[in-house]
Amino acid sequence: MPRQSGPKKVTGVRDYLDQVQQGKIRDQVITFQLANGFEPIGVLHRYLPEDADSMGHAAHMVWRNPYDDANEPKEFRVPRDVEGVRLATVQLQARSVKGYDEFMRNIEYFVDVAADYESDFVVFPELFTLMLLSSEDKELSPQESIEALSRYTPRIRESLSEMAMRYNINIIGGSHPTRTSDGDIQNVAYICLRDGAVHEQEKIHPTPNERYWWNIQGGDNIGVFQTDCGPIGVLICYDSEFPELARRLVDEGARIIFVPFCTDSRQGYLRVRYCCQARAIENQCYVVMSGNVGNLPNVHNMDIQYAQSCILTPCDFPFARDGIAAEATENVETLTISDVNLSDLSWARSEGTVRNLADRRFDLYRIDWDSEEGGLHDGEEPGIGARPMGTSSPGGG
Which of 64, 89, 96, 245 has its C-alpha lying 20 to 30 A from 357's C-alpha? Predict the structure, then answer.
């Protein structure tokens, strides 16, 4: 407030400011600010002590936004915290092994590397255990292969769980075709957590080839698994192409969905990839894909493989460009790692450009789930008797 010592008599700093407001004194700066809508709300004493003209004082001014109604209730934004999780997906090269120990050393290598990078999760592909069939003396039929693989099931569970605890990482054990305790042949993912817990997720929808050639039956239950990073879900390959399953997992709290897959062609891979991207967008969650590459001699079921493993996100401002946090090069064995922020999902669901979960029309549609355990009745599975097109490969998405 310059020139308080001018010719006009004032009794103090506040009186000077009042006279400027009344037009009795003309102050070049304050008068200009008043003309542009600024409002004095006080005096800042000793603001600039070395300014002799103002005796160190300053006018405290405020400019009020004319487009803001002070009487309207305030809207508080969702805080953008950081709830970081590091995800690793293995794009696994199919290779011949001499036995179980050599196979498990290959798996442990990737678990070790993912743990060195302090990953919270590492996911392996669907049917990654079919490499064990290469150690057989002859090429086995699908029925013989199932029996051979079933003998490894207890050891696989034990080995993956031991590695999860030893390396302090949660392992999504791809999937393993096995004969279960009820006699059915199922395609099962083993979720081995670093706290020692072991969970199972059956593939709900076997492909036509899996049903016809391998007699794999669909599972009965889909649900989330509680981890130290929050609830997660697992959809094995073809299951990702059924949006009802992912929606149920997200409604139960899953923010990350892991999709182990096994596809023999680019067309099959893209069916799974495009559906996984759709699941990430419509459910505002992260989706992690893991696939096999290469081929196996003497294993009829693994003729050729095509994969480009990736970590997918919703498509909105906080997330990665193109909705891809990270992706591998096609058909090359590698480990792909990315950090994701789970808090970004909370922001997207409440304040995002679109809010798919919140904007559902429950007045028009809903999904009713069968609360009873049990699969389809005899004869209800579509196409069970028709020979599918293509090879007897169990994958295909």
Answer: 89
In this prediction, residues 55-70 reach a mean pLDDT of 84
Q: Tell me if residue 229 is catalytic.
A: no
**Does residue 126 have an active-site annotation?**
yes
Do 48 and 125 reside in the same domain of the chain?
A: no
Cα dihedral across residues 239, 241, 243, 247: positive or negative = positive
Element (H, E) at 350: helix 342-351
Rounded (5°) CA angle 116-120-121: 100
CATH number for position 304 = 3.60.110.10
Q: Is 203 a catalytic residue?
A: yes
At residue 188, the pLDDT reads 97
- Mean pLDDT is lowest, of 70-84, 126-140, 209-223, for 70-84
Backbone angles phi, psi at 334, to 5 degrees: -165, 170
> Which of 203, 241, 275, 315 is labelled catalytic?
203
Nearest to 350 by CA among 68, 75, 74, 87: 75
- 25 and 154 both lie in a single domain: no
Catalytic-role residue among 126, 210, 327, 333: 126
How far apart (Å, rounded) are the C-alpha atoms in residues 392 and 94? 17
* Burial of residue 255 (number of CB atoms within 10 Å: 0-12, 13-18, 19+): buried
* 366-382 residue pLDDT tens: 888 886 543 433 334 44
